[in-house]
């Protein structure tokens, strides 16, 4: 018998490498039973062929898969094929933060928390999170670019968003740990930094079945410590509070009840807590949670969902937001909104996002906030963000419109290095000023603020590499029937569209407060009246800035639904008075038409002020006039005359 070779073939048989299609059909090119290959070679064409077969003849996936290489594993790919996923279960601890508040009896703990830069987290967390809204945005997240792929281009949460929404530091030392913590090391850390006994620490980690502690356990053991306690107890309680705080906010994991003990190492030296870039670590952790949730089999979303939800409110206020009228710009922008659960289903939210227009996006929402918090220079940093073992790329060049610049075709996204190369990552981060986008990379600013402009060739490129529509047109719900309608996402008719635009304008002016002049309110009312009357195109044409150069993504200023109260140019008041509301009665010589029922009461206009009203003549055949209606009409006419 001829001897066998390493691959399992006999020396007399011809050796030929099987193709990818033969592997899928399980074609064996062996004359006898071969010896199993200990290290089979995966053909690189295999995954690409599967993706081609899945989306052959359908416009669901990207045509050019050089960017979104793992799209065939994405939840959006499954949705396009008819498989659906329920709204994600959200890990939100906003209500648990109120179970451990720092009052006057714990002022020493609060002073340390305030110096750490994490104090805003104690008050700006949302207690309610909308599952359909967050799930729909998660379906648009792409791990390769760490951006949301919207119908008109890419958007993402930037370091500027983190600094404005949360008011926590985004510069400082990178948060990194050595190797993942073992249970024994976690027990030793609890004994050293929290003052617990070995038995208590072991019992807690055994109950969590991981190097973690329950949030409830931290509250039960340390929330009763006050300023009257010993210095050591106050120090232990401060570390426990900070661990509880980051476990409920920045690093909320999908256990929903516990926090990893490894973060306790960051609070070893309480005087150094404020030197960390907490905002950058929070953003890296949220990026990873969104990436994990893009897999179809995942059913839960972690991370700091207040940051994600407030970012949606800021950039899409017409669709989802409910502003808080008492907000002032000195506070975090997360407090500007009143979180609520939207009544729409997940499928309807998908369809609303599929029809989202570029003019419905508020690209620069922090214009009024710049006086308190200017744009941080580190927001232009292009590189990697790190949080322990989590490393995620950060690409501001892909979302230039969020900084007020014209969007160009970005370079290919880079692959982040391994987490074990922490020294190189830390050195790169420490010299972040050397890795910000240059003026040449940023390009030109938009012709006017909030226009969301892009170069003419951008959309053609984006259409090839992206997945713009999530909900398949053939599987749409009764929410709407036109898959590519130009109407706003929540409008079902022309009247609904006008009402929505008028309400958006009025809501924006109301949110400006009572300090605005009467002309501002009158201009908003006049504009809303023009929209509802169907003359919004005419009324908005006055005092309109000169249009930008022709571009497919440059909307007209008249179509932009959002304006800052300080910069909005209202059209002049209309010269014609609105039509009168009082209809005069017919002449006495003309008999009213016959009717089967009693005739409706006539509304008689009031006489001039200088002429006394004539005494009414009694007529038994005519019904008595409605005194209430006459009085009401008289008051309206009198007010109109006074105005």
Secondary structure blueprint with pairings:
Layout: H1 20-24, H2 45-54, H3 75-80, E1 89-90, H4 107-116, H5 131-138, E2 141-142, E3 147-150, E4 153-155, H6 159-166, H7 183-194, H8 198-208, E5 212-214, H9 215-222, H10 231-248, E6 258-260, H11 278-293, E7 300-301, H12 305-315, H13 317-320, H14 346-354, E8 383-387, E9 390-394, H15 422-430, H16 439-442, H17 458-465, H18 494-511, H19 518-532, H20 536-539, H21 627-642
Parallel strand pairs: 1-7
Antiparallel strand pairs: 2-3, 3-4, 5-6, 8-9
Helix pairs in contact: 4-10, 5-14, 6-11, 7-8, 9-10, 18-19
Structural class: mainly alpha
| Whole-number mean pLDDT | 77
Query: Strands across the major sheet, in which order?
Result: 2-3-4
Strand content: under 5%
E-strand count: 9
Per DSSP, the total helix count is 21
Enumerate the spans where pLDDT stays under 50 for 5 or more consecutive residues.
1-15, 20-58, 478-494, 535-597, 608-614, 616-641
Order of secondary-structure elements: HHHEHHEEEHHHEHHEHEHHHEEHHHHHHH
Can you give me a brief rundown of this structure?
The protein is mostly helical and 643 residues long. The protein has 21 helices and nine strands.
Description:
The structure is a single chain. This protein has 21 helices and nine strands. It has 643 residues and is mostly helical. The strands form four sheets. The chain has a three-stranded antiparallel beta sheet with strand order 2-3-4, with no helix packed on it. The N terminus and C terminus are likely disordered. Helix 7 crosses helix 8. Strand 8 and strand 9 form a beta hairpin. The protein starts with 19 loop residues before the first helix and ends with a helix.
């Amino acid at each position: 018998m001829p001897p066998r070779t390493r691959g399992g073939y006999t020396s007399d048989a011809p050796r030929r490498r099987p193709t990818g299609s033969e592997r899928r059909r399980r074609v064996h090119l062996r004359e006898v039973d071969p010896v199993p290959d200990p290290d089979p070679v995966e053909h690189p064409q295999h995954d690409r062929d599967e993706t081609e077969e899945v989306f052959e003849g359908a416009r669901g996936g990207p045509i050019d898969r050089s960017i979104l290489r793992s799209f065939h594993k994405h939840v959006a790919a499954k949705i396009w094929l008819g498989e659906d996923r329920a709204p994600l279960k959200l890990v939100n601890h906003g209500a648990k933060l109120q179970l451990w508040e720092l009052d006057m009896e714990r002022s020493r703990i609060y002073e340390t928390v305030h110096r750490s830069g994490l104090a805003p987290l104690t008050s700006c967390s949302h207690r309610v999170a909308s599952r359909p809204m967050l799930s729909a945005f998660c379906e648009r997240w792409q791990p390769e670019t760490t951006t949301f792929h919207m119908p008109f281009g890419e958007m993402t949460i930037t370091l500027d968003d983190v600094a404005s929404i949360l008011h926590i530091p985004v510069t400082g030392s990178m948060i990194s740990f050595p190797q993942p913590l073992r249970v024994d090391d976690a027990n030793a850390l609890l004994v050293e930094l929290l003052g617990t006994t070995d038995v208590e620490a072991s019992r807690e980690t055994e109950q969590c079945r991981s190097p973690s502690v329950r949030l409830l356990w931290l509250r039960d053991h340390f929330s009763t410590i006050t300023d009257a306690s010993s210095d050591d107890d106050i120090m232990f309680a401060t570390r426990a509070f900070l661990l509880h705080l980051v476990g409920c906010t920045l690093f909320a994991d999908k256990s929903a009840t516990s926090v990893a003990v490894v973060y306790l190492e960051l609070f070893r030296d309480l005087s150094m807590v404020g030197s960390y870039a907490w905002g950058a670590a929070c953003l890296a952790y949220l990026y990873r949670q969104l990436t994990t949730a893009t897999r179809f089999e995942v059913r839960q979303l972690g991370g700091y969902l207040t940051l994600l939800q407030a970012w949606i409110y800021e950039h899409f206020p017409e669709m989802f937001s409910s502003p808080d009228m008492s907000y002032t710009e000195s506070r975090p922008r997360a407090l500007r909104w009143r979180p609520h659960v939207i009544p729409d289903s997940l499928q309807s939210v998908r369809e609303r996002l599929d029809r989202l227009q570029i003019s419905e996006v508020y690209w620069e929402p922090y214009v009024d906030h710049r006086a308190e918090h200017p744009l941080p220079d580190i927001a232009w940093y292009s590189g990697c963000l790190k949080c322990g073992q989590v490393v995620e790329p950060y690409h501001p060049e892909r979302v230039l419109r969020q900084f007020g610049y014209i969007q160009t075709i970005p370079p290919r996204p880079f692959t982040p290095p391994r987490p074990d190369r922490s020294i190189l990552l830390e050195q790169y981060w420490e010299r972040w000023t050397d890795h910000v986008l240059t003026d040449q990379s940023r390009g030109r600013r938009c012709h006017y603020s909030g226009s969301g402009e892009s170069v003419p060739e951008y959309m053609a490129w984006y259409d090839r590499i992206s997945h713009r529509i999530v909900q398949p047109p053939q599987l749409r719900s009764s929410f709407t029937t036109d898959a590519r309608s130009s109407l706003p996402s929540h409008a079902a008719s022309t009247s609904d569209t006008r009402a929505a635009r008028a309400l958006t304008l009025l809501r924006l002016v109301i949110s400006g407060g009572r300090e605005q002049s009467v002309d501002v309110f009158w201009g908003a009312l006049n504009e809303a009246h023009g929209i509802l009357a169907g003359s919004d195109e005419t009324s908005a044409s006055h005092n309109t800035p000169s249009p930008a150069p022709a571009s497919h993504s440059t909307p007209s200023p008249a179509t932009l639904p959002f304006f800052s109260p300080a910069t909005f140019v209202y059209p002049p008041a209309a010269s014609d008075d609105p039509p009168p509301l009082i209809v005069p009665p017919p002449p006495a010589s003309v008999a009213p038409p016959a009717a089967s029922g009693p005739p409706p009461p006539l509304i008689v206009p009031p006489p001039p002020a200088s002429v006394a009203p004539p005494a009414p003549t009694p007529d038994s055949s005519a019904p008595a006039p409605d005194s209430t209606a006459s009085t009401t009409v008289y008051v309206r006419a009198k007010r109109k005359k006074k105005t």
